[in-house]
Amino acid sequence: MNNNYMKYSGAGNDFIIINNLENQLHDKKSRVLDLASLPDNSKIDGIIFLEKSDRADYKMNYFNRDGTDSGLCGNGLRCSAKYISDNIDVNKKNISIEALDNIFKTEILSDDLISVEFPPPKIVNPNIRLVVNFENWFNEINCGYVDVGSPHIVIPLSELTKLDKEIQSLDDIEIIKLGKYFRYHKELMPEGANVNFINLVSEKESIVESRVYERGVESETLASGTGSLSVAIYSYIKYNLNSPIKIFTRSKEILTVDFIFKENKIEKMKLTGSSKKI
Asked: Is position 226 within any domain?
């Protein structure tokens, strides 16, 4: 197996990046599954093939570790920009990257601080109700659904506390059990959704902590770029927070989300955080 790849981390979201600019790799899914099966790659969340683009400087072809290729990866875009600046267009600060038929502008702000701009969200519904069935009894929770290129539901800690009084903090959540339950909730199928559990830390400073269960990884990840965007949008609406909104991730790093609200639309979204070779 050709091991010509590098590993990068975006605020704790870890990726393998493969230079496929010469289009030498065609069976990408098999390559993804082979790499994901290696013991040294057990903590890798996704695999990125960097390719040529007719519309942008480069193209990011992203796969989850289970071989699926659905959905956008925000931290993957930031790590791709860092990889390009480190290894191909050395010291290039502004890089456009094609992904899922969109063009994303990235900027290297400092050695390990990278931002990426996003188009307006496709769907924002801050008020959905999901029927849940735990321990043979039924209840409803209020949550949000946001799609910024990848679908996410956002569930406040207070809604989980209503279901189980022992859940008083995000640390109390059985993330695999609850994450899997909501990820495959019948009202979200067939596509399913990534699941974000959140808690408002500071209204004044616009800080929200988050834990995320990601589809395709089928486990908790230490950070999610599109998840952070979704959490920020939901928190802006529900908690009346001011932009920029800071998302405190499970990796203990901050992902910052900026945007403007104009004519009842969210525009000029930007995700900023660390990205480094690991």
From this structure: yes
* Total domains present in the chain: 2
Q: What is the pLDDT of residues 106-132, one digit of tens each?
A: 999 999 999 999 999 999 999 999 999
Q: How far apart are CA 216 and CA 69, in angstroms?
A: 8
Q: Are 241 and 231 in contact (CB under 8 A)?
A: no
Residue 157 lies in a domain: yes
- Could you tell me if residue 92 is inside a domain? yes
**pLDDT digit string, tens, across residues 245-264:** 999 999 999 999 999 999 98
> Three-class SS of residue 98?
strand
Tell me, yes or no, whether 167 lies in a domain: yes
pTM recorded for the entire structure: 0.95
pLDDT, one tens digit per residue, over 174-210 is 999 999 999 999 999 999 999 999 999 999 999 999 9
Q: Burial, 273: exposed, middle or buried (Cβ in 10 Å; 0-12, 13-18, 19+)?
A: buried
Residue with tokens 């949550």: 143
Ranges of H-type helices in the chain = 28-36, 74-87, 157-163, 175-183, 225-239
DSSP-derived secondary structure for 231-252: HHHHHHHHH-PPSSEEEE-TTS
